[in-house]
Amino acid sequence: MKINKLQPKFPADRIPISPQKCHNSLNCSEINDENAFNRDKIGSILAAPGLSGGLYELIVELSERKKMQFFKPIPLAHYKLCKLCQGKDWYVYYYVLDPVTGRLKRIRSKVNSVKPISARRRMAREMMAALDQRLALGWNPLLEAKTPKAFHPLFDAFDAFLAVKEKELEANSMRSYRSLVAIFRTWLEKHGFSAASYANSVKVETATQFMADYEMKLATKTYNNYVSFFRILFSWMVSRGYTDVDPFAAIEKKRKRMKKNRRILTDDELSRLIDYLQRENVPYLAMCLICYCCLIRPKEIAMLRCGDIDLQHQTIHVSASISKNDKESFRTIPDDLVPVLRMLDRTRDDYFLFAEHDGWDFRPGQKMVCSRKIAKYWDQAVRPACGFGLDVKFYSLKDSGITNMLTDGVPINLVQQQADHSSIAMTAVYVGKKASAQEEIRTW
Predict the structure, then answer these.
(1) How far is CA 349 from CA 285, 304, 363, in A?
(2) d(CA 273, CA 334)
(3) Secondary element (H or E) of residue 394
(4) Cα dihedral across residues 57, 61, 64, 68: positive or negative
(5) What percent of the chain has pLDDT over 70?
(6) Cβ-count burial of 96 within 10 angstroms (0-12 exposed, 13-18 middle, 19+ buried)?
(7) How many degrees, rounded to 5, is the angle at CA 413 between CA 412 and CA 418?
(8) Sheet of 91-97: strands edge to edge?
C-alpha cells in the first residue's frame, strides 16, 4: 500500500505520540519555513531522511502497517521525552539509549538565538513535539551516527546483500541465499514488517522468535545452516552500517547427535550400478566413475568442461575457479575409465562435459547441469533400480574409491593427491573402513 492511498486518520490508541497534543499536527516543513528560527540546526534534526510529507503522515503509514509490533521503543527504557530548560542558556533536551554503553544519554539542542522570548518558547514547543514523535517511532540520533544506513528500508538492505553476493558465489549458493532471504522476508511480513520497516528494526527478539517458529520444522543440519546464513547476512549489514548488532549472533547452533548417514558401496553394489548405467545412461555412468576413480566432488564434476579432459595424458584438469579449496589440480584417469569417456561427444572444448537437457539427459552441452539434479537422478532412478538403501548416496562413490585404493595398496600420498585432501591425516581416516579382515593380522 502506498502512502497516498492511506486514509488520513490516526488511531491514537496504538502509538502514543506526545503529551503536547495541541502540536501533533506540526510537521518539519512548518518549522523549516521560519528562517529566523535557526533553520539549519533545527532542520537537520527534524528532517526525516528519505521520507516525504509530514511526520503526521509518516505516523499514519506506520500505524496502518502495524510496523511497531516487534521494535516499538519503550518510554523511560529506550528514551525520555523532550523538556525545555529556561535559564541562562535555553535548550531542549531529551534522552536516548546509547548503543555503546546501554544507558540513557542526554542530547541537548540550544535555542538561545531565537528572539523575542515568546517566539523562542513557541519554536521550542514545536521542536519538542516533532522530536517526541520521532522518538516514539524509534529514532535515535546516536544510532544514526553509528549506523548511517540504519533508517534505510530493511528489504532494500536484503536486496543489496544479494546483489553483492551475486558477484562472489556460485549459482547453487546464490539459489540457497535467495531462498532463505525470501523465507525470512515472508515471515517478517506476516509479523508486521513491511517495505517501510527500517534496516535496524530486526532485534534479538525477532530473530529468536523466527528460529523458534522453524525449530520443529527443520532437521538439525538445516537449522544450523539457517543460523549460519543469517549470521552472514547481518554481519554484512553491520559492516555496511545498516544495523549495529547481529541479532542472530546469540542464537546457538544445535549439537549434532549422529554421524553422516553414508557408507561405502560393496563390490556387488558397484557391479550392479555399472551394469544398470551401461544400459540406461552412459553419461551418468561416466559421471559416477569420475567420482569413484578420480575422486572429484559432485559440484566440481558439474562444472567440468570438455576441454578439461586430456585422454592422451589421461588427466582431468580441475581449475582453481571450480575447486572447493580454490586450488588447481590434475586427477589421473585410470585405464578402465578411458573407453567410457571416449563415448561422450567432446568435440567442443567450451561445452560442459555434463550439461542440462530435458529429462535425465546429461550429454555435453552449453548449459551447466545443476549438482542437485545429479543427486535427484540417483534418488529417483539409480537407488530403486539397483536396490540401494538410503545410506548409499552419490557421494558414497568418492568414499568408496578412496577406501578401495588404500585397500588395494595404492600409496596414501598418491590417494591424498587424487582426492585433493589438504593432509594425509584426512586421507588416513579411510584406512580400514572396508569390512574385511587384515591378512597380516589374521595370520599373526
Answers:
(1) 20, 10, 14
(2) 18
(3) none
(4) negative
(5) 78
(6) buried
(7) 95
(8) 79-85, 91-97, 104-110
C-alpha cell at 133: 514523535
Q: What is the DSSP letter of 4?
A: G
CA 168 from centre of chain: 13
Which of 420, 300, 426 has the alpha carbon at shortest distance from 353? 300
CA 13 distance to own-chain centroid: 37
**Is residue 31 classed as helix, strand or coil in its secondary structure?**
helix
Beta strand spans in 319-413 (E): 329-332
- Per-residue pLDDT of 115-139, as tens digits, reads 888 888 898 899 999 888 888 877 7
Per-residue b or e along 366-400, where b marks 16 or more CB atoms closer than 10 Å to that residue's CB: eebbebeebeebbeebbbeebebeeebbbbbbbbb
Distance CA 305, CA 353 (A): 5
Please say if the pLDDT value at position 8 is more than 70. Answer: no
User: How many Å is the maximal CA-CA distance in the chain?
Assistant: 109
